[in-house]
Structure formats: C-alpha cells, structure tokens
Amino acid sequence: MSSFCDPAGSFNYNRFLEYMRQFKTSEEREEAIKKAFTMLDKDGSGYIEWNEIKYILSTVPSATPSAPLSDEEAEAVIQSVDTDGDGRIDYREFSNMVKMEKKPKK
C-alpha cells in the first residue's frame, strides 16, 4: 500500500502531493508518478477514463464540504488536463498535471 492511500485504500490527493514533494531527483519523482497513474488507471487501459476521473475528483478533499462534482464541473476539469482532447487522461497529461500542481490554499 502506498503512502498516498488512506487506510481504506482510497486515493488521497493531498497526501499524494505531499508524497511527490519529498523527491529530490526527477527519476524518483517520475517513478512515483508512474505508480500513482497505475493505481488510478483501475482497468489497466493506459488511460484514466471518465469513470475513473469522476472517482478521483469525488475523493479530492476541498476546503469546504461540498457535493460531488456535477458532470459539467468534472468535464471542465478533464478539459483542462486533457490536452489532446480525447476525453481521457494519458500518462503524459497526468504527469504534466502533477508537475504543475500547486498546494491548494487553505
């Protein structure tokens, strides 16, 4: 079990970002990104698809209690990461998103 899962085995986005910050070399960070991508790509297709994206987005903690994202909100998030427009997140897009991620303000 990786350190960015909670005890129930769910993906914890903030814990993942903290985990990513500990790496000093790009090789270590790249390996951690690969492991996270593999974990999130639940069906092993090589892409994080709509249903997997909805799951991830529903587990990302926010500063205020909120309902799960609507389809329109989830679509906007996907479009911001999905640079090739195919409606799913490939490894390169996921890696780019992680590397650009900033810690959310509290």
From TrEMBL:
Keywords per UniProt: Calcium, Metal-binding, Repeat
Keyword Phosphoprotein tagged: no
Keyword Calcium included in the entry's annotation: yes
Alphabetical list of SUPFAM superfamilies matching this protein: EF-hand
Residues at which Ca(2+) 2 binds: 93
PROSITE patterns in the record: EF_HAND_1 (PS00018), EF_HAND_2 (PS50222)
A Pfam family assignment: EF-hand_7
Positions contributing to Ca(2+) 1 binding: 41, 43, 45, 47, 52, 82, 84, 86
GO annotation, cellular component aspect: cytoplasm
A GO molecular-function annotation: calcium ion binding
SMART domains: EFh
Top-rank taxon: Eukaryota
Domain EF-hand: 28-63, 69-104
Protein family per UniProt: Belongs to the parvalbumin family.
Functional note: In muscle, parvalbumin is thought to be involved in relaxation after contraction. It binds two calcium ions.
Name the record gives this protein: Parvalbumin
